[in-house]
Design goal:
The structure is a single chain. With about 725 residues, the chain is of the alpha/beta class. The strands form four sheets. It has an eight-stranded mixed β-sheet, with helices on both faces. A four-stranded parallel β-sheet has the order 10-9-11-12, with helices on both faces. Helix 21 runs antiparallel to helix 22. The relative contact order is 0.07.
Length: about 725
């Protein structure tokens, strides 16, 4: 069997040529199947004498898999030619190219490969050779490719693009059969196409004249060869069939694809001759993004979480406890996006029963499958919203993924229609489209922008209230850390007003502006991005400094809130009490840790002053501090370390160097957040920002002392209470 693909620009006459090739081949005694791969699904109309045919894509949309039969989509046409039409989605939605992939997969499953066929003819749209329409170019489908063109430049341009597509697939195997000139009657048409054919080293297999006979045949919905077998036009069409048979008998007649570059095509358009490119010449650079290295390495290094924007948006939106986040995409995406946060939730070991309020119950998916990706998912999204409304949901965030973005689902129109029908419900769309918006960071900040829309800008600050901004599960490890912020504020007579982007409800978000002070909880790009969104959108001021971590920062915090709320005496009293507890704990721990040599490497954490302060208070010696590449205290609101000039920082430090440097310096403990150490004879402790206040710092110091009391290999396992601590990956290292 031989498979041939007929490619060309839309409207160039591919379907007419293909139908006549099939007819001629069948007339020569060959068993032929023609598969139309154009969304217009008119390729086989002449072979079926105008009979309507069910397209494969409409068939798989309407018929469940267990009821599908090959005979429903393969019809017998003139001279026994087997006729198939792929079809396409509704105009403006879905992905026609993806539909070709679905068609071929369905035909294979239905057993088309088991049919007795001598020649398969694929009639394929070739204006843009995208991944879907390029399927017939792959070796498993097309042995030989014919290019249908006229003398018009855009037709030749499309033919050249098809040659580029062939080169991407052929891997050095010649597969081009030749050029078919389907004349449009323009001036010097033969000469123009002959110059192009000579430049790409291909023969012109047939020169089909412009003729009224084609229009007459089209009116009668029959092939020209059937109605006018003795015409000159029919003779040219038979040349193509004869050429295909010769290739069937001798595949060595196929030729290599040698496309032209843009400059050469411009010369063809100008009427100049172009010398053929030497065999094996690659006229353009790599066309696959996977072949192109990311040049902006600094940007890549600064990313905190390597994941798509949709995942970041889902994470952020689902922090609103009395809303539901709909992921408009495949079920697998929803599973991955919800699991990442649930694992963080479990890892924190929250004291309450985790299943009392599982976060994943606030995430839904439209479960887009392959069929939906072809025909669009707008209807599926609408049905999902309606189902959730019946379940009592009243607030919705809709996050789009790669699939919905690629197929062009108009999610905004769907949500607008639902909002008009249900004006009392809340809807917000985040068009993340997977990676198209950016990465996790951009998606998370976009979610913050969406959540901020709920804030009532007219509310005035009242009481002793503080807003906490950009808390995230990623930085929650110990079971009692959740209470650190609330406990700290209570010590100063303050209340948490809203934990923006961290397990909060609509009412709390709406009343955000009741808070007098606004503090970021983490110092990273995402937290700063969220802060900027709030400052710009609702006109608040986010404090330059974070919630305090350690004694120094606590004293500065006390001064700030004392001034803001007029509670200087209360604040000073609270600080004195905390300082007494801190010094008592440090005095005890100093006996165990004084003189120990510490190696610090920080990949993610921007502010490690609390750690330096703690180590110095414990009487330990810092022998090395390595900061990740690109780490600079130069952002708009980020101040330099107060230890600049007092301790030495090694900039642009790569974690891959930890082992070598640690062996040279021989520390007693490595404190790091990258997990790159492979040493088993040195104590190692992972860290993130310890938490809020002073108690968290004392807790960190105790864990460090417990680790150092055990042998280095086992130090990660248990703390002084016999509880598991640290991260198992460090044990493996």
């Amino acid at each position: 069997m031989i498979q041939i693909a007929v490619y060309g620009k839309g409207g160039i006459g591919k379907s007419t040529v293909s139908a006549n090739i099939s007819y001629a081949l069948a007339d020569m005694g060959k068993k032929v199947m023609q598969i139309g791969c154009d969304p217009k699904h008119d390729s086989t109309r002449a072979l079926l004498n105008g009979r309507e045919q069910t397209t494969v894509l409409s068939y798989i949309r309407d018929k469940p898999p267990f009821d599908r039969r090959i005979e429903d989509v393969v019809l017998d046409g003139l001279k026994g030619i087997k006729c198939v039409e792929a079809g396409g989605p509704e105009p403006g939605i879905g992905c026609a190219g993806r539909g070709i992939l679905s068609t071929f997969d369905t035909l294979k499953r239905l057993g088309v490969d088991d049919m007795d066929i001598d020649v398969k003819v694929y009639d394929v749209l070739g204006d843009v050779v995208c991944g879907g329409f390029a399927v017939p170019l792959r070796n498993e489908y097309a042995d030989g490719v014919y290019l249908v063109t006229s003398g018009e430049f855009m037709s030749l341009y499309a033919a050249n693009n098809i040659l580029k597509g062939i080169r991407n697939f052929d891997k050095g195997v010649p597969r081009v059969a030749g050029i078919i000139l389907n004349c449009r009657g323009i001036e010097n048409e033969h000469a123009v196409v002959e110059r192009f054919a000579e430049a790409v080293s291909l023969p012109i297999v047939a020169k089909i004249p412009r003729s009224r006979l084609f229009a007459e045949a089209e009116k009668k919905e029959m092939p020209l060869l059937h109605l006018f077998p003795d015409s000159n036009e029919a003779a040219e069409l038979r040349k193509i069939a004869e050429n295909a048979v010769s290739i069937l008998n001798d595949p060595s007649r196929l030729l290599e694809s040698r496309p032209l570059n843009d400059e050469q095509m411009g010369r063809i358009a100008a009427g100049e001759s172009v010398r053929p490119n030497p065999e094996g010449t690659v006229v353009d650079g790599p066309v696959c993004r996977a072949c192109v290295r990311m040049k902006d390495s600094k940007r890549k290094k600064e990313k905190l979480v390597a994941s798509c924007a949709a995942a970041g948006a889902v994470y952020g939106c689902s922090t609103v406890t009395d809303s539901v986040t709909i992921i408009h995409g495949p079920r697998s995406c929803a599973h991955i996006m919800s699991s990442s946060r649930n694992l963080s939730e479990i890892r924190r070991g929250r004291k309450r029963n985790f299943m009392d309020d599982p976060q994943f119950m606030r995430i839904e998916s439209t479960d887009m499958d392959d069929t939906v990706s072809v025909f669009g998912g707008a209807g599926l999204l609408e049905q999902k919203i309606r189902d959730l409304i019946l379940e009592g949901c009243t607030r919705f965030f809709i996050v789009t993924t790669c699939v919905s973005g690629i197929i062009g689902d108009n999610v905004i129109d769907v949500v607008t229609a639902m909002s008009n029908q249900y004006p009392d419900l809340y809807f917000r769309v985040i068009e993340a489209d997977g990676n198209i918006l950016g990465d996790w960071e951009e998606g998370y900040i976009e979610a913050a922008d969406a959540v901020a829309d709920m804030i009532n800008k007219d509310i005035q600050a009242s009481g002793r209230r503080v807003n906490l901004i950009a808390e995230r599960y990623f930085f929650r490890i110990n079971e009692d850390k959740d209470d650190d912020a609330a406990v700290l504020l209570k010590q100063f007579g303050l209340d948490v007003n809203c934990r923006f982007m961290y397990e909060t409800d609509m009412e709390s978000i709406t009343n955000f502006k009741k808070g007098t002070l606004n503090y970021m909880v983490n110092d990273d790009a995402m937290a700063r991005g969220v802060a900027k969104v709030l400052e710009k959108k609702i006109g608040i001021r986010v404090e330059d400094e974070l919630l305090p971590c350690g004694m120094y920062e606590l004293k500065r915090f006390a001064e700030r809130i004392g001034e803001a709320f007029g509670i200087q005496e209360e604040a000073a009293k609270a600080v004195r009490k905390e300082e007494e507890e801190y010094m008592a704990a440090i005095s005890e721990l100093r006996k165990r840790l004084e003189g120990k040599r510490v190696f610090i490497e920080s990949w993610y954490m921007h502010n490690i002053d609390w750690l330096i302060e703690l180590i110095q208070d414990l009487g330990m010696e810092i022998i090395f501090i390595g900061l990740a590449p690109g780490r600079e205290w130069k952002a708009e609101k980020r101040k330099g370390s107060r230890f600049e000039g007092k301790v030495e920082f090694t900039r642009d430090y790569w974690p891959d160097d930890v082992c070598e440097d640690a062996r040279r310096l021989r520390p007693d403990i490595i404190i790091g957040d990258s997990g790159r150490t492979g040493m088993t004879d040195v104590h190692h402790m992972s860290f993130v920002r310890a938490g809020v206040g002073v108690k968290c710092v004392i807790r960190f110091a105790r864990e460090m002392a417990d680790i150092m009391a055990a042998p280095p290999v086992e130090g990660w396992r248990l703390n002084g209470k016999g509880e598991m601590m640290g991260d198992e990956r460090y044990a493996r290292n």
